[in-house]
């Protein structure tokens, strides 16, 4: 009977192993993917590697992905090449521009270097810069940079075209501020204050003027107001010569997924399960052995104090038992004596009537 069960179990195991190997060997092969790597482009957005499934796309002839990236970059550059920038000498107005960019790139440090070179070439400068790098423990962490740039208005369209061609444009905004009315109003106000200043000077030189101190204070306030207005106009003249560009640059890292391994066969699953079980058993025994070694000193210390207490308790218990036994023996002896006396008196009462008769 045992032999039949053994043969049946072995047969079932072999059947399962054979079925598992046949199923995994006959699994449909996943569509192969073709990885097309491209070098760093001069502009636009091209991933470091483009994955194309053969089952979805079939090309009759060789296709150049670099031409597509270059074409998209040129189109983006041409789109921003015609950005209209009005200059004071051409329009007769005092205009200032504020431009905001949100950009993405796969080539973070190379892109920053190219941007700095272009800014220097266009006679611009960086007012503020902040770069957030990555931690060495996290090499796939994406970096970030922010810049505030001053660029001459004549070079603004050139820099915008360069940025649009070199980086992936996520957000773009341009604001034009007209300082003409403010500048002309300040100049008119300065002329009026100059007239008031001359009147105060004449009053201050007048010998019949008795409020010279008040006149001097008014003259000081007028001159301070004139200096503030002239400083504001000088700032406007500076702003209309240089545009402000705010750039937020984000690094993009494309991580290719790891290939999915084929499912294990029955024998591999059985081997893995046995290995995991033995490993868990070994870890458990190791943990118990370490726990025993850890608790052993405490157990010895507790035993040093507990053993004398246990011995003393046992002695006291034995002494109590002895005393209790002695008490019971004494009570039994007294009971026997009492019983003997009662029996003796009963016998005497029985014998006394017989003697009288």
Q: Which properties best describe this structure?
A:
alpha+beta, 17% strand, 7 strands, two-stranded antiparallel ribbon
Q: Biggest sheet: strands, sense, closure?
A: 5 strands, mixed
What structural class is derived from the secondary structure elements? alpha+beta
Order of helices and strands: HEEHHEHEEHEHHEH
For the largest beta sheet, what order do the strands appear in spatially? Answer: 4-5-7-3-6
Strand content: 15-25%
Percent in helix? 55-70%
Instruction: Please report the number of helical segments.
Output: 8
The N- to C-terminal Cα distance equals 96 Å
Mean pLDDT: 75
Radius of gyration: 52 Å
User: What overall geometry do the principal axes of the alpha carbons give?
Assistant: elongated
